[in-house]
C-alpha cells in the first residue's frame, strides 16, 4: 500500500495498542529477575565455599526479602524506569535502573543497620552484585525484542510531522532509516501556503499546521514531531500542548540538527526558553594518546591471537598462483599523509590496471568503488574477503601508527581528490581497520550513507563507541553481510 493510498482512506490504520503493555512487561521482567536473584543469593550463601561460615539465611530473607523487592521496584518506578516513552532508544533507561538499584542497596543497608536487623552480608553482596547486572541485561534483552518487533512492523508509534515540506522530508528520512525507533510516519502537516497532495519524498500532506490538534485527534496519532517551519509564534507550541494534554499525544521538537551524539547535546532552560547546547566535534579526541595506546595494545594482542590464521592465509595465497602474498597500496592517512597499506592479495596480479575501465563500464565513481562478483578476485581471495581475513595484515599498519583499529576506511589519492569540504573531515583521524559503516552494512550501503556514518564517527568519537564497533565487527564478519 502506498502512502497516497493510505491518505485516501478515512483512517491510517489502527495504532499499535501493544505499546501500552511495554511498562507492564518491563515490570514483570524486573520482578522475575529480582526473585530469581534473591533465590540464588540464598542458595549461594548456604552453598558457596567462598564464605567462611556457610549459613541458611532463608528465614531472614523471608522477613526482609519481600520488603526489599517491593522497595526496589518502587524506586525504579519513582525514578521513571517504567515510563512508556523510555523503551527502545538511548541510555536513559539503563541509567534510571542503575541509579534506582544503587539507591535500593543503600537504603536496605542503612535500614537494616538502624533497625538492628542482622541481614547476612553475604546475601546482600550476592543479591545486588548479581541483581544489578541481571536487571540491566534483562532490559537489554527486552530492548532487542522491541527492536526486532519494530523492524517487523509492530510496536510502532503513529507519527505526524509538522513543518515545511523540506524539513518534514528530512525528519522522515531519519525516522525511516532508524526503523528500530518504531516511528511510523503517517502524514505531514505543513504551513497553509504549502498544502498539497504530498511532499517531495511522497509523504501525504494531511492539512495545515494550524489544524494540528484537530488532525492529531482525527488520525489517532501517538506523536507529533514539530520540525523547522512548523510554528509561527513561540506560544503556538504551548497552546497545542495544552490542547493535547488529555489525548496522550506526545509532542516532540525536532530541531534542524542531525548526526550529533547524545553525549554532545545538553539541554539548559533559561528563563523558560529551552536552549540546546552542542559541544564541539570530537575529531581531536580521536587522535589522543589514549586511543593510540589502545591501538598498540590491541594490535599486538590480535597479532599473537591470529598468528595461526596469518600462516594459513599466507600459504593459501602463495600456493594459488605463486604470486606476491601481500598487496601493497599507497593510501591517504591522517591529515593527508601517505602510507603503504597492507592487505592479503585477493585479486590477480596487476589488477589495478583494469580498474579505470571497470569504473567506466559500470558508470561508478571512484569514491568507495566496489564491485560485486568482481572477475579479478581469485579463488582464495573470495574466502579471504568473505571473512575479512584479507584485512588482517593491517594490524601491522596499526602497530606502526599509520592506522587505528577503528576509524574511517583508508582511501587512495584518486578517491581523496573527489572529497568536498565536508568529506575532508575524514582525514582528521587515522583511518581504521573497521568502522561504523562496516558494521552497519558494509558494501550494501549507499555512498551517501557510508559517508554519513564516517563523518558521524569523526565528529562524535568516544572510546565506548570504539569498543562497541569492535564488538559489532565480529557479528558483521561472521555473518558476511555486505562483504565482497
From TrEMBL:
It is a multi-pass membrane protein. InterPro entries: Bact_transf, EPS_sugar_tfrase. GO terms for cellular component: membrane. GO terms for molecular function: phosphotransferase activity, for other substituted phosphate groups. The chain crosses the membrane at residues 21-43, 63-82, 94-116, 122-142, 296-319. Coiled coil: none annotated. Residues 291-478 form the Bacterial sugar transferase domain. It is found in: Membrane. The keyword Transmembrane applies. Its main location: membrane. Pfam families: Bac_transf, CoA_binding_3. Keywords: Membrane, Transferase, Transmembrane, Transmembrane helix. PANTHER family: COLANIC BIOSYNTHESIS UDP-GLUCOSE LIPID CARRIER TRANSFERASE, SLL5057 PROTEIN. Belongs to the bacterial sugar transferase family. This is Exopolysaccharide biosynthesis polyprenyl glycosylphosphotransferase.
Amino acid at each position: 500500500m502506498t502512502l497516497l493510498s493510505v491518505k485516501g482512506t478515512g483512517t491510517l490504520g489502527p495504532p499499535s495498542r501493544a505499546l501500552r503493555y511495554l511498562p507492564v512487561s518491563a515490570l514483570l521482567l524486573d520482578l522475575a529477575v529480582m526473585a530469581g536473584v534473591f533465590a540464588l543469593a540464598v542458595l549461594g550463601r548456604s552453598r558457596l565455599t567462598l564464605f567462611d561460615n556457610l549459613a541458611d539465611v532463608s528465614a531472614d530473607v523471608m522477613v526482609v526479602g519481600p520488603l526489599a523487592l517491593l522497595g526496589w521496584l518502587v524506586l525504579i518506578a519513582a525514578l521513571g524506569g517504567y515510563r512508556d516513552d523510555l523503551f527502545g532508544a538511548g541510555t536513559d533507561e539503563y541509567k534510571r535502573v542503575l541509579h534506582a538499584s544503587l539507591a535500593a542497596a543503600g537504603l536496605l543497608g542503612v535500614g537494616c543497620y538502624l533497625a538492628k536487623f542482622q541481614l547476612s552480608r553475604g546475601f546482600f553482596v550476592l543479591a545486588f552484585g548479581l541483581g544489578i547486572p541481571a536487571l540491566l541485561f534483562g532490559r537489554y534483552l527486552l530492548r532487542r525484542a522491541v527492536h526486532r518487533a519494530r523492524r517487523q512492523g509492530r510496536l510502532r508509534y503513529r507519527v505526524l510531522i509538522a513543518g515545511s515540506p523540506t524539513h518534514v522530508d528530512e525528519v522522515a528520512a531519519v525516522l525511516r532509516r532508524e526503523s528500530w525507533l518504531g516511528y511510523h510516519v503517517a502524514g505531514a502537516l505543513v504551513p497553509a501556503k504549502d498544502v498539497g497532495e504530498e511532499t517531495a519524498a511522497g509523504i501525504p500532506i494531511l492539512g495545515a499546521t494550524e489544524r494540528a490538534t484537530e488532525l492529531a485527534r482525527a488520525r489517532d496519532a501517538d506523536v507529533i514531531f514539530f520540525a523547522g517551519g512548523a510554528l509561527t509564534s513561540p506560544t503556538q507550541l504551548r497552546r497545542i500542548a495544552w490542547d493535547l494534554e488529555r489525548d496522550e499525544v506526545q509532542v516532540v521538537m525536532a530541531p534542524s540538527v542531525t548526526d550529533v551524539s547524545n553525549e554532545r547535546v545538553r539541554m539548559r532552560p533559561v528563563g523558560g526558553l529551552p536552549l540546546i547546547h552542542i559541544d564541539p566535534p570530537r575529531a581531536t579526541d580521536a587522535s589522543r594518546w589514549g586511543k593510540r595506546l589502545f591501538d598498540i595494545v590491541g594490535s599486538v594482542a590480535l597479532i599473537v591471537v591470529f598468528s595461526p590464521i596469518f600462516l594459513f592465509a599466507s600459504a593459501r595465497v602463495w600456493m594459488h598462483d605463486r604470486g606476491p602474498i601481500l598487496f601493497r597500496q599507497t593510501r591517504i592517512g591522517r591529515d593527508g599523509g601517505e602510507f603503504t597499506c597492507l592487505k592479503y592479495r585477493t585479486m590477480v596480479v596487476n589488477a589495478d590496471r583494469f580498474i579505470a575501465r571497470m569504473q567506466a563500464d559500470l558508470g561508478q565513481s571512484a569514491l568507495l568503488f566496489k564491485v560485486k562478483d568482481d572477475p579479478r578476485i581469485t579463488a582464495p581471495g573470495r574466502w579471504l574477503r568473505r571473512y575479512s581475513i584479507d584485512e588482517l595484515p593491517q594490524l601491522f599498519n596499526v602497530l606502526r601508527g599509520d592506522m587505528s583499529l577503528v576509524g574511517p576506511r583508508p582511501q587512495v589519492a584518486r578517491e581523496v581528490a573527489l572529497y568536498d569540504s565536508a568529506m575532508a573531515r575524514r582525514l582528521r583521524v587515522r583511518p581504521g581497520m573497521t568502522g561504523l559503516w562496516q558494521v552497519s552494512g558494509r558494501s550494501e550501503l549507499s555512498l551517501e550513507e557510508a559517508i554519513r556514518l564516517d563523518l558521524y564517527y569523526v565528529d562524535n568519537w568516544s572510546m565506548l563507541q570504539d569498543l562497541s564497533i569492535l564488538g559489532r565487527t565480529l557479528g558483521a564478519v561472521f555473518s558476511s553481510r555486505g562483504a565482497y
